[in-house]
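Entry 14. Ran structure prediction on the chain below.
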Amino acid sequence: MEEAIKKLHNLFFKGALKNKQVAQDLLLCYLPAQLCKRINFETLKPTDKSFVRQHLREFHSDIIYTCLIDGKPSYIYFIIEYQSDKEELMAFRKFQYNVALMEDHLTQGHKKLPLIINCCIYHGKKAPYPYSVDIYDCFEIPELARKEMFQSFKLIDLTIMSEENLKKHGTASLVEMLFKYRLSRSYFNVIKRVIELGLLQAAISHLGDSYLEHVLEYVLNVGEDTTHVVEDILSLLKKALPAKEKVIMKFAEQLRQQGVKTGRQRGIEQERRAIAKKMLKQGFKVETIAQVTRLSQEQLKKLK
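Output, C-alpha cells:
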C-alpha cells in the first residue's frame, strides 16, 4: 500500500512539474530575481530525460527542462525527493546527475558544457530537510575539499619545462624526461641525455631492478629504433649501470625471444589470410573458411 502511494505522489509531482506554467512559477518564486531575468522562459521546454539510477528511484525522481540562459543552451533540473532519511548524499547524487546530463549534452554535438540550474523539492518524513545541500559536506574532509576540489587542476606541462627544473624532481625526473621526449623517433639520444644528467643512475639506485626492467620495457618497445640502434642503447645502459649488466642482458634476451615469437605469429597469421583469400575466391562458405583458417567471421568479412 505504501509503495502504491509513493508511486501516486511521484506521478502527481512529475505530472505537475511537466506543466510549463507550474515549473515557471516555481522558478520565479525560488530563484534569485537577477537569475530569472537571464532565463528566457519562452524557451522553457520539458524533456523526457532522466538520470536517476534505478536503485535510487524509490527515494527521488527528476524532471529536466531545456531553456536558453543568456541565449545559450541550458537546463533546469528538478529533483523530487521524498525519503531523505535513506539518502544523505543528495548533493553528491545531484552532482552525478549533472555530469550525466552534461555528457548527454556533448553527445548532441555541443562543444561547451551547459549551465544547469538545480532545484530540489522535498516532502519527506523529517522536517526540516535533515542533510546538507552543499556537496563539500559529502567529503570526509569538507574544509580541504572546499579548497582543493573542483578548482583548476594542477598542470604539469613537460613540453615547456626545462631540463634544469626536471633535474630537481628526484626519482620522478627520469620518467618526466622520457615523457618529455616521447615523440622522439629514436630513444638513443634521449637515453644518452638522461645518463649524462645522472637521472637514470639515480632513479635505479633508489628504485632497484624491477624499476630498471620497467624502464627497459618502455624504452626498447616504444621507439622506432632499428636493431642496430637498440644494441647501441643496450651498450649505453651497460656502461652507465655496470652493476646491472646481467639484468639488462637478461631483459634484452627476453626481448629478442619475444620478437622471434611475434615474428612467427605474424607469419602464421599472414599464411592463414592467404589461404582464406584463395578459399573466398573459390566460393567456399565463410563458416567453412573460418573453421579451416581459425580466422573470425569478422576478419573474413574484412578480407572480402
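Residues 2-148 form one domain. Will compare against last week's run tomorrow.
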